[in-house]
Amino acid sequence: MKRVTFAEFGGPDVLELLEAEEPHAGPGQVRIAVRAAGVNPVDWRLREGQILGAHPIELPSGVGQDAAGVVDEIGEGVAGVEIGDRVFGEGSSTYSEFAVLWAWARMPEGLTFEEAAGYPSVVETALRIIGQVGVEPGQTLLVSGASGGVGSAVLQIARDRGIAVIATGGAANQDYLRGLGALATTYGEGWVERVRRFGRIDAALDLAGSGVIPQLVELAGDPQRVVSIADLGAPEFGVRFSGVAGSMPDALAVAADLISGGKLHIPVEKSYPLAEAAAAHIDSRAGHTRGRRVMVI
């Protein structure tokens, strides 16, 4: 089978599409024939050698953790799933023709493989950071860099919970953010004053890592009311950097319910074949994504 891999840390040019041995499902796992794999910032952060303390890896390494596909092998002790089921979930080395998952759920009706592959990590992250920042129904959450996958999930989950959202994003994404129920404004010069005009901020999330932590602390009034998933220097300002995942099975169950209920939809902005994994990482690192980027097999 073909799999994207890298043998050294570095830029996108270290990624190679090579022949590899097929993985097999161990106890508590399933193997899928991968149809699509989500592209996440953690993928290129690990390829660059970042965040290895939280996500240790051995070289050579595969790439990717989110995927959607068809179950073709079931490990010992696994119940409630059958060969041929269409599932989405989390595993390892998912930029591949076959991958092992250790957390999964059946795909909701009407969802394509490309769409499904974009949900696992972003929904888990959105649920985790909304909980960590402590925002409650009736309060207002500021989301910096809100148009990507995590931001799209945060805005819709917050709306479902009765949390008002003020979102910053690029000029081209303002209508998109408003369509998800947020009060939207652009980042760049004067953004703090534009946000203040919307009213009180109870908590804030940094999703883009664009050097705005001090301003978010100022707007929220307390560093304990700010969480970042993108700025590794956030703790210098007393702000939590959230990089350790919570329960993926729980997140997948919530995602499936919200999707089935028409309360959550994350569009796929662009799809890439495995041979273009480097381009996918370049685009992901550049930001400005509206929704998700995925690999297709």
UniProtKB/TrEMBL annotation:
Magnesium in keyword set: no
Annotated ranges, domain Enoyl reductase (ER): 10-295
Key words of the record: Cytoplasm, NADP, RNA-binding
Keyword NADP: yes
Residues spanning the membrane: none
Domain of life, source organism: Bacteria
InterPro entries hit by this protein: ADH-like_N, ER, GroES-like_sf, NAD(P)-bd_dom_sf, Quin_OxRdtase/zeta-crystal_CS, Zinc-ADH_QOR/CCCR
Subcellular location: Cytoplasm
PROSITE patterns (UniProt xref): QOR_ZETA_CRYSTAL
Quaternary structure and interacting proteins, as annotated: Homotetramer.
Listed name of the protein: NADP-dependent oxidoreductase
Organism: Nocardia albiluteola
Origin organism lineage: Bacteria, Bacillati, Actinomycetota, Actinomycetes, Mycobacteriales
